[in-house]
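FORM 12-B: Structure-to-Sequence Request
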């Protein structure tokens, strides 16, 4: 097809990065980076979900869920949580910036995409993926060290998993877009 001039790597980047953005956004906002269960002297079906902004308690049997729980153990003061509060929103802003640059560079309605601009967007999106991967990794590493009621059971929450997946998709999409630099080098 002579009309198809958008390289596959650019299409891959423009598909993966918005998906990564949605997952990272959900991971940032949803309060479930860690689940605390089997808390002594509490109902056996009580689960605390801790995010980077909020803490919720849920009774599994009745599905009664109450967010905005008090932080009695200083969870939100912990460095991995503070770092996540700073880097996750930063990552989202950098992703939006990268997607804007990518849209201008790829421009499917042009006869030829702007390869240099697409390559630069790839670097920006790669950076945004790393900005969200760092806090997700650090939090995971410290998950069992963060304050929790004694003898309770700790588990990874879905928000942390989504943050990881979002970071990886942004990194892969960013890498795909950086292949546009190859075209720039060929032209020189």
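FORM 12-B RESPONSE
SEQUENCE OUT:
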């Amino acid at each position: 097809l002579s009309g198809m001039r958008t390289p596959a790597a650019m299409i891959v980047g423009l598909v993966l990065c918005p998906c990564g953005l949605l997952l990272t956004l959900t991971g940032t906002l949803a309060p479930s980076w860690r689940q605390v269960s089997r808390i002594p002297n509490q109902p056996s079906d009580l689960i605390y979900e801790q995010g980077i902004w909020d803490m919720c308690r849920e009774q599994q049997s009745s599905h009664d869920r109450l967010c905005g729980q008090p932080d009695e153990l200083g969870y939100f003061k912990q460095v991995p949580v503070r770092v996540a509060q700073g880097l996750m929103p930063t990552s989202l802003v950098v992703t939006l910036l990268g997607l804007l640059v990518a849209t201008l560079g790829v421009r499917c309605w042009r006869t030829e995409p702007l390869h240099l601009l697409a390559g630069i967007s790839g670097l920006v999106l790669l950076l945004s993926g790393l900005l969200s991967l760092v806090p997700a990794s650090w939090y995971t590493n410290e998950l069992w060290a963060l304050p929790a009621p004694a003898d309770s059971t700790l588990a990874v929450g879905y928000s942390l998993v989504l943050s990881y997946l979002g970071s990886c998709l942004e990194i892969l999409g960013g890498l795909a877009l950086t292949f546009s630099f190859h075209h720039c080098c060929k032209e020189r």
